[in-house]
Design brief:
The chain is an alpha+beta fold and 402 residues long. It has one domain: Cytochrome p450. Helices cover 49% and strands 9% of the residues. The chain has a 6-stranded mixed sheet with strand order 1-2-3-9-6-4. Helix 6 crosses helix 17 and helix 8 packs antiparallel against helix 12 (220-251). Bound molecules: protoporphyrin IX containing FE.
């Protein structure tokens, strides 16, 4: 087994992720020693069984980054800091504290009415499509797929459309990571704190009010941080999920042959994306509670273990002879106590399916404006999403009336 670590940077992660995974698996097996930015070490788990074991064994592979043994190697301006920061939120908490938060979020999201959710997603989709449907061409990523989840999540938080639009804009600025990203993050914090104060004073029929009223007993500061985690954790992967499904339907002849009548294959395309191009390719992570063994590797106490979700999904030992169709055994929503909460998965699926269906209905002859091989992926080993999705179509009249 090769012990020389693999660098988690570089074009091979984006240009040919499947080939790169295959090479890593052949050379290193299911648990790969890797170097993140600034050569900070970690273990990347790409074996399905090994990842399943990690996710099912929180007594050995725990969530809190306070356990990490490499903090002294992390520079103050490390670009991956947001992924490991020791913030008191559902993401990093463990045991009873995690159960308290996880139950509250699950309850607050379960109360979202699925019919209303679908109707709101249709309305948001129509509003967005109206802004470009008369032009005959658009970048579907920036104008549509990356925007719609934030709009729907803003509605779940009880924000009216204008404040939802502003929130979606702030999320876009943050994700783009340009010079205004930090200011956008501060603005988001301010707005969430304001929203919590508003709902504390005057509760409504929304998820923020439900969280405030929950027996979990959130303080205002705790809830402000939690709302940001849920918004960020929901917005980005759902946007990539929609974008990657649209890309698949526009480029793969199994779908593109019938783009106009492709409504029936939307769920199949969404499911296939979760197996082949899942939005969260690698997730950080877990931290070893004590020395242990995993996939033939000795893992030291406090070592960081990265969840290789796409690697596990593509593990030949579970994929042999198995097709993606109708098969939900992928690990794209993770697994175990910290998996993406079930009502969040349901919300994401409704939003993604509705967003794709409405686009197909409104712009049935949309086609890629560039050759498929000229589409570029975002250059990150952590997420998988097209950086733009330019299409052309026959211009149509806006619908209005929402
Ligand atoms: C409405 C949209 C969504 C919401 C509100 C949401 C919310 C959340 C929350 C609150 C967590 C933290 C759970 C915990 O630590 O206990 C989480 C985790 C996660 N979610 Fe989601 N999510 C959404 C969509 C998605 C999508 C579309 C994907 C990918 C296909 C995804 C993948 C994940 C993964 C991989 C984790 C990490 C689990 C772990 O650490 O084991 N989520 N999500």
């Amino acid at each position: 087994m090769n012990v020389c670590p693999v660098r988690l940077r570089g074009p091979e992660h984006t240009t040919d992720p499947a080939g790169h995974l295959e090479k890593m698996r052949a050379e290193h097996g299911p648990v790969v020693p890797v170097l993140m930015d600034s050569d900070v070490p970690a273990w990347l788990v790409i074996g399905y069984r090994e990842l399943h074991h990690v996710l099912n064994t929180p007594s050995v592979f725990a969530r809190s980054s306070a356990r990490w043994n490499a903090w002294e190697r992390v520079p103050a301006d490390w670009p991956l800091l947001p992924m490991v920061m020791q913030l008191p939120t559902v993401l990093y908490s463990e045991g009873d504290e995690h159960r308290r938060r996880s139950r509250a979020i699950t309850d607050a999201l379960s109360a979202v009415d699925p019919h209303e959710l679908r109707a709101v997603t249709v309305r948001m989709a129509d509003r967005l499509i109206d802004t470009f449907c008369g032009s005959g061409s658009v970048d579907l990523r920036t104008a549509y797929s990356a925007r719609i989840p934030a709009l729907v999540l803003a509605w779940i938080y009880g924000l009216e459309d204008r404040r939802g639009d502003e929130l979606a804009q702030i999320m876009t600025t943050m994700i783009d990571g340009g010079p205004d990203a930090m200011a956008a993050q501060r603005e988001l914090m301010t707005r969430m704190a304001h929203l919590v104060a508003e709902r504390r004073a005057a509760p409504g029929p929304d998820a923020v009010s439900r969280l405030l009223a929950h027996p979990a007993g959130y303080t205002d500061d705790e809830l402000t941080a939690e709302l940001i985690v849920v918004l960020g954790g929901g917005n980005q992967p759902t946007g990539e999920w929609i974008g990657n499904a649209l890309r698949l339907m526009l480029t793969d002849e199994r779908f593109s042959a019938s783009f106009a009548g492709a409504r029936s294959s939307v769920r199949a395309a969404l499911n296939e994306v979760l197996w082949e191009d899942t939005p969260t390719q690698i997730h950080a992570g877990r931290f070893a509670v004590h020395d242990t063994e995993l996939g033939g590797r000795r893992i030291g106490r406090g070592d960081m273990v990265l969840l290789g979700l796409s690697g596990a999904n593509q593990d030949p030992s579970v994929r042999a002879g198995v097709t993606a169709e109708g098969n939900n055994a992928h690990l794209s929503f993770s697994h175990g106590a910290h998996r993406c909460p079930f009502p969040a998965q349901d919300i994401a699926e409704t939003v993604a399916a509705t967003a794709v269906e409405i686009l197909l209905d409104r712009l049935p002859d949309a086609e890629l404006a560039v050759a498929p091989h000229d589409l570029r992926w975002r250059s990150s080993p952590w997420v998988r999403g097209v950086s733009s999705l330019p299409v052309t179509f026959t211009p149509v009249t806006p619908r209005g009336g929402y």
